[in-house]
Amino acid sequence: MSRLNQRVLEWFGVDDDWERPRPPIGRQDVVLAASVGAVGLLTLELVRSAAGGFEHTDAPMWAQWLAVALGAVLLLGRRRWPLVVASLAALHMFVAGVAMPEVMAQTSLQIVYFVALLSGVAWARDRRAMLLVVGVIVLFMFAWIGWQFAIGSAAQEWLDDEEGADQVGFFPRIPAAVGYSLAINALYFGGAIAGGGFSWRSARQRDRLEEQAATIAAQAGRLRQQAVVDERLRIARDLHDVVAHGVSAMGIQAGAARRVLERDPDAARTALSHVEEASRDAVAQMRRLLGTLREGTGEETSSTRTTDAGVGDLPDLVAEVDGQGLAVSLDVVEAQPGAASRLPRGLGLAVYRTVQEALANVRRHSTADSASVVVRVDEAPPRAYAEVEVVDNGRPRHGTSGSGLGQLGIRERAATHDGQVDIGPRVTGGYRVRVRYPLEAST
Asked: Where is the Signal transduction histidine kinase subgroup 3 dimerisation and phosphoacceptor domain (predicted)?
């Protein structure tokens, strides 16, 4: 029995910390109350006209209209003050039932009482107070019905003794009528309480889903931001190695020029031209990469540094992936002989990292069994470019949808070289990652 009570209390949210927000009286409340009042007065007069009046109701017409109107007015505050409205509706039901039972039995007022009790369960913020108020209302109403049943049984005994009333069915007439009323009221009040409970639980579930969605969105935003920071920190480390290489070359060439300046001016000029070229390349790399970096701190996330990698290292990368359930082909298309080997250091590294991330995504999230890597380089002005394209023949693998952070890294790295990115499924099937870098910006 205690477990049943615990389940009932849990279902009604007695120990739940969540409180359903109470909206102010709004337009929909006014429309509902006005509609119920208008329909109630109309049906009241229709019944009066069709049945020739309320024969057993001594209350004047204005009192009947007032009872219907007051019932409709109660619906205005059903969400703002749910327990107060439920209590007033129960009082209205009792007074109208004693003074003018035929008016109280009208469908419009029955709807008012049902909605008021349902709203009391659905919108009450203090769940223990709700159980107390609703429990008192239900006990009072069934005590009233029981009182009528007791009077009905006594009247039936008097009829049996004095008039010998005939019994048509299995039950005496008056107790049968009261018993029928008892069953109807049990369904009536039980339905209102159950409906209110379902409404409250649905509202709580929606609020929790909205809270979870907001949390997931915030976490996704933080993950995206962290991915951007991590990628830019990795770019910064690559930049350090790229620029350090250029500065070292500048130092070597400058030292050589100093040593041969007097005895071999032509060699000195050649060395100084190399210094100028290296300095320009280093400055261009710094402007391009540092322009996209943000301040951040962090530790090295990988012990493997591949900042010297470029297009020439792609065969080794493809060989590592090929044969592990994925057949990978590599083609390097050069409009001019040796064009791929002459790519700037940072741009060659960007091509390498793009292929590395794209192949990793194919293995993790695709059903593909083959993929092709194509690198195209054209140094001819005015549209000199370097392009890398990775295409597979698979579909997204069920249950392995990624976070999109890998693609975000590809876009971030492409942005540092003014590259254009095209990532997405192909019309003919499979998936494509294509990035085109302008060589003018790199040289």
From this structure: 231-296
